[in-house]
Amino acid sequence: MNGERKLRAGLIGLGAMGRNHARVLSGLAGVELVAVVDPMGDSTGTLRVPVVPTVTELIALGIDYAVIACPTALHEEVGLELAANGVCALIEKPLAPSIEAARRLVDAFESAGLVAGVGHIERYNPALQSLRSRLEAGELGEVFQVVTRRQGPFPHRIADVGVVMDLATHDIDLTSWVTGQSYVSVSAHTVFRSGRPHEDMVAAVGQLADGSMVNHLVNWLSPLKERSTVITGEKGCFVADTLTADLTFYANGAITTEWEALRSFRGVAEGDMIRFAIPKREPLLVEHERFRDAVEGKPSDIVTLRQGLRTVEVASAVLRSARSKSTMQLPATT
Which residues form the GFO/IDH/MocA-like oxidoreductase domain (predicted)? Predict the structure, then answer.
């Protein structure tokens, strides 16, 4: 850990996610939470650090990095001010509401030589981290399909983006990250049921660079909260529940059945089912530890702004596909 002094960190935004960031930053080893920015102040009176109204005032206090947890529409403005003042930034997902804004953020932080990352927290979910390492080890063989389901009640705190940018960006990022493959095409359908200007339900089908198929079903109109990732391949399928951080493997069976009717009904024979025992550390804490290490110049696995930009590109293609009722092709990643 940094022996000379603690890193000085700031937080911008005190919404539901911002308060989670404040909790983790307040106890993060090697880091001092200096102040928080929120024009509304600290409505609960629980913070032990000053709450200032502007980013400019936060920067004046002298900080090494800031966590941007304000509404997505403000990410570009806040991020550009931090970059212009030499402050590293961890930006909540999505990186920005548009491809153009995301690119400007990438350019600003890269040209300033600053560490910057995107808070795609699912990468730090224990179930998905274990799944990724098992896929890399070839435990599934060739991947055929990735299916995600992410649904739950309507979050009244979200007002500036729809379900694609708010929720589906989780699935887009985790799918590329877990498989190591980029999207090459997407086709989607959205619906508007809550009376808001943004979509609240999406069904998307896509293809990855290796030819595998992806399906995403995302909504915030369901009383059932579900966070499921199912990856099917030549040796069986993995099921990750990121709400409980459980990972289960269903193997293709090696034993055939003589019962002809049952064999034709089941298709691939059922084999062993294994639920893996994995350490379950809080993903948000792991995300902060990784970003702290990166700011200190240590080797660390963070979600780069360029990766965040790619997720915004895919999400934008999903929205364009739904509007145009056509399949969108995506350029190859560099």
Answer: 129-238
Please tell me what DSSP assigns to residue 112.
T
pLDDT in tens, 249-289: 999 876 555 656 555 555 555 678 899 999 999 999 999 99
Give all domains of the chain, ordered by start, each with its CATH number.
Answer: 7-122+284-302 (3.40.50.720), 123-281+313-329 (3.30.360.10)
H helices of the chain, in order, are 16-26, 55-60, 75-84, 99-111, 126-136, 163, 169-179, 260-266, 283-295, 305-324
Give the Cα separation of 284 and 290 in Å (integer). 10
| Cα–Cα distance for residue pair 94/75, rounded to 1 Å | 9
The model's pLDDT over 135-155, given as tens digits with 9 standing for 90+, comes to 999 999 999 999 999 999 987
Give pTM, 2 decimals. 0.92
DSSP string, 252-313: EPS---S-HHHHHHH-SPEEEEEE-------HHHHHHHHHHHHHTT------BHHHHHHHHH
Interatomic CA distance for residues 199 and 186, integer angstroms: 17
Q: Which two tokens stand for residue 287?
A: 């995300």
Q: Is 119 exposed, middle or buried (0-12, 13-18, 19+ CB in 10 A)?
A: buried
Residue whose C-alpha is closest to residue 174's, from 237, 131, 134, 115: 131
Tell me the one-letter amino acid at 139: E
* Cα dist from 113 to 63, 221, 271, whole Å: 16, 42, 51
Positive/negative CA dihedral, 77, 81, 82, 84: positive
Q: Please list, residue by residue across 213-249, b when 16 or more beta carbons sit within 10 angstroms of its beta carbon and e when fewer do.
A: ebbbbbbbeeeeeebebbbbbebbbbbbbbeebbbeb
